Fold this protein.
Amino acid sequence: MASSFRKIIFLTGAGISAESGLETFRDAHGLWNKYNTDDVASLNGFINNPKLVHQFYNELRMQMAMAQPNDAHLALSYLQHFSSADIHIITQNIDTLHEKAFSKNIWHMHGQINQLTCLNCHAVIETWSNCFVYSRCPHCKKATLRPNIVFFGEKIFFESVIENLINTADLFVAVGTSGTIPPASLFARDARKNHCQTIALNLEKPENYCDFDQFIQGNLSQTLPSFVQTLLD
Ligand SMILES: [Zn+2]
């Protein structure tokens, strides 16, 4: 299997970080349940109550700062370092667990929890510190910072890069994603148009199951290291 793939694209979703103790939108408990997602993950929500949005992301940032990568993240990083294929990770996750696992070629399509962006000068600021409505941009000194997170209804980041990756890959692997939220849910279908092989790994059968040539079910910290090994053998 190993020698036949030259460009491998992994799409990772909330499932890969769940085993690192990070909750997802859909979990019926924890941080996401304390807040209404429309209030904290939409531009309208931010305009109406920026204080609440900053408070939410401050809590989430603290939680994500402490999270550690699990065997699934480490397996991907291992593959990137020991395979001769060109391997990219498109992630829906805003945590930085791929970075903590020393992966490379990571494309955060929904932004990163450790970044803020300035609505005035558009600078992107990396920080793990709390942000408040009165926090000032280090560049233009205005208090116009927002989380560098793609809110509902906003365009994903790296759209053209991602499109190019999907169109040029010969293996597309979706990991820990339920296949319900576009545009990510459409990547497998698009990849297939170019005769790319498609594989999904997840705890449960994804919604877009029919877009995959193969589905591997189970805990990702177990299934992904085994799968990665087949790419290296
Ligand atoms: Zn600024």
